[in-house]
Amino acid sequence: MRIGAIEAGGTKFVCGIGNENGVIEERISFPTEQPERVMEQVISYFKDKNVEAIGIGTFGPIDIDPASETYGSVTTTPKPGWSGFPFLETVKKEFDVPFGWDTDVNAAAYGEAVWGVARGLDSCVYFTIGTGIGVGVYSEHKLVHGLVHPEGGHILPRRHPEDHFEGNCPYHGDCLEGMAAGPAIEKRWGMKGSELGIDHPAWAMEAYYLGQAVTTTILMLSPKMVILGGGVMHQKQLLPMIRAEVRKNLNGYVSAAPLLTGIDDYIVSPGLGDNAGLCGSLALGLAALERNGK
Ligand SMILES: Nc1ncnc2c1ncn2[C@@H]1O[C@H](COP(=O)(O)OP(=O)(O)OP(=O)(O)O)[C@@H](O)[C@H]1O
Ligand SMILES: [Zn+2]
């Protein structure tokens, strides 16, 4: 089986071909420039590839309501040229195959549930903490859609008592993304996160915010696993600090075994590593093919 996958990131696009076992056979990547230029490259990559379906996991916000006139478009992004761009339609008219379409983080959550660390579970939540913060939600074997799609990166955390940083989300200032994404760390401390030592107070503050977000997630959605990925999570000291914050916040109130004795297997890194995004899109493509009864 040959399934096409598109991982549309804010910085770069990755296109690839994979199979029904989640194995990526080939890939290319290019920068996220103006949409017309990007689409030319996407279409020319898949032109002679004979794929049976294509899955797209993209930065958002996007329109995922099949009944909407703008289904398949990117909606309110500040990214030049992309706001209102009919992404899905542009690719769809070139290839007569089933398409999967969702956010990059919903795709990553799905990929982890199909082939990764959450394999076999009927729910998981995937966070990416990078240039932005995104949250994908898989629940009762389905990706969660609703009014639009989850936008968990913009929830409002309680401020750390020693934090005087105003926050840098253009919409909300001190929301989670405004306080804890990579650019917020850099702005608050005047240095890139990757240059701060592992004992720097930045990490306790980061864990304080991410710990709150994971706590809220557990209380709101009760997922069977929480997966934390993205560039900032390359700081290996963070994961245990976040687990400790979550335990402190919950204070024994949610008495499920994974939170009491098995938290190291409950709040985890992505099992698919750097392939999480592309494998997620691949899984979306495969699901679209299956929905078409093939
Ligand atoms: N080792 C590291 N330690 C701390 N921060 C890091 C590290 N590596 C990358 N980052 C930060 O992560 C951010 C980039 O995130 P990522 O590598 O996930 O890329 P991205 O795909 O652009 O992000 P997004 O998923 O939000 O589009 C930058 O702000 C960068 O400073
Ligand atoms: Zn925000």
Automatic annotation (TrEMBL):
SUPFAM superfamilies: Actin-like ATPase domain
Pfam families according to UniProt: ROK
Keyword annotations from UniProtKB, A to Z: ATP-binding, Carbohydrate metabolism, Kinase, Magnesium, Metal-binding, Nucleotide-binding, Transferase, Zinc
Domain of life: Bacteria
Sample GO molecular function, one term: fructokinase activity
Cofactor(s) the protein requires to work: Mg(2+)
Enzyme Commission number(s) of this protein: 2.7.1.4
EC supergroup of this enzyme: transferase
Enzymatic reactions: D-fructose + ATP = D-fructose 6-phosphate + ADP + H(+)
Protein family membership: Belongs to the ROK (NagC/XylR) family.
Protein's recorded name: fructokinase
